[in-house]
Amino acid sequence: MAEQNSQQNGTEQSNRPSARRPQQRRNEFVQTRKSVPYTLQVQSNAMLDYMSRNGGAAAGAFQRVAGLIQFTANDTVVRERLDTWFESVIANASERANALSVQQEKYSEGIVTNVPRPKVPENYKYVVEITHPIFWKLIGLVEMIDNVMGEIEFLWLSGQLEDVHLQNAQGQAINTIRTMVNRIYYVTNASRNRKGGLYNPDAYNELMQALIKNEEAPEHQENETGEQEAAATAA
Q1: Alpha-carbon distance values, 40 to 30, 63, 91, 118, 177 (Å)
Q2: What is the mean pLDDT of residues 103-128?
Q3: Would you kindly state where each structural domain of the chain is located, as residue ranges?
Q4: In terms of pLDDT, which residue wins out, 79 or 219?
Q5: d(Cα 59, Cα 185) in Å, to the nearest integer?
Q6: How far apart are CA 231 and CA 235, in angstroms?
Q7: Are the C-beta atoms of residues 170 and 149 closer than 8 Å to each other?
Q8: Could you report how far apart the first and last alpha carbons of the chain are, in Å?
Q9: pLDDT at res. 232
Q10: Virtual CA dihedral for 130, 219, 100, 51, nearest 10 degrees?
């Protein structure tokens, strides 16, 4: 009887959590968030409005890419795919920004005006917290578009452009950045759920929790073009 009780006690002890072999935890991704504040001296109403409303989402998109660059540092194949995709995103946005600049130059051709330059209020500023060098790509693009829109808004204020021209330019400027940001959110989300995609789903979810606590992605349209981009990234 004593021997039977001893065997039962041994079985119970072996089933207790303290007696089980501890499971090895997967290494957690640690995101360092040291940052350098950079103040955008905004010149246009269009960019001030966009950055005031959506600057956080734009920075969040680039923070995702920054984290993925760190996350894939030791995986050459995945890193090359990530770099190629991100370069195409920036190239597409730059092409659209250059097209807006060409349009502004056409508007300015042959125009001579004695109207003084507009006074930009001191509060036309937006601070970007730089946590990775890729943030300079966002800053460079925003500043380029801002300068172009500043000139277009000046032409409008001086009576050289119609309202419709200003509205079209504003839409083109904002959509250039919005499309870039939405591509980043869409492809990084879609790729984690695709077999053979860029990221391991568990590791990706862990990374996203470290990067974007309580942050919501901006609205986007998951159209055929976006699906093709995600598929190409995961191929």
Answers
A1: 29, 18, 22, 18, 15
A2: 90
A3: 44-234
A4: 79
A5: 11
A6: 6
A7: yes
A8: 66
A9: 40
A10: -40
Instruction: Assess contact for 141 and 69: CB atoms under 8 A.
Output: no
The letter for the amino acid at 146 is D
Angle between helices 45-71 and 135-157 (to 10 degrees): 170
Q: According to the 3-state scheme, what is the secondary structure of the chain?
A: CHHHHHHHHHHHHHHCHHHCCCCCCCCCCCCCCCCEEEEEECCCHHHHHHHHHHHHHHHHHHHHHHHHHHHCCCCHHHHHHHHHHHHHHHHHHHHHHHHHHHHHHHHHCCCCCCCCCCCCCCCCEEEEEECCCCHHHHHHHHHHHHHHHHHHHHHHHCCCCCHHHHHHHHHHHHHHHHHHHHHHHHHHHHHCCCCCCCCCHHHHHHHHHHHCCCCCCCCCCCCHHHHHHHHHHHC
| Per-residue pLDDT tens digits for 61-71 | 998 888 888 87
What's the pTM value of the predicted model, to 2 decimals? 0.71
Give the whole-angstrom CA distance, residue 127 versus residue 56.
Answer: 10
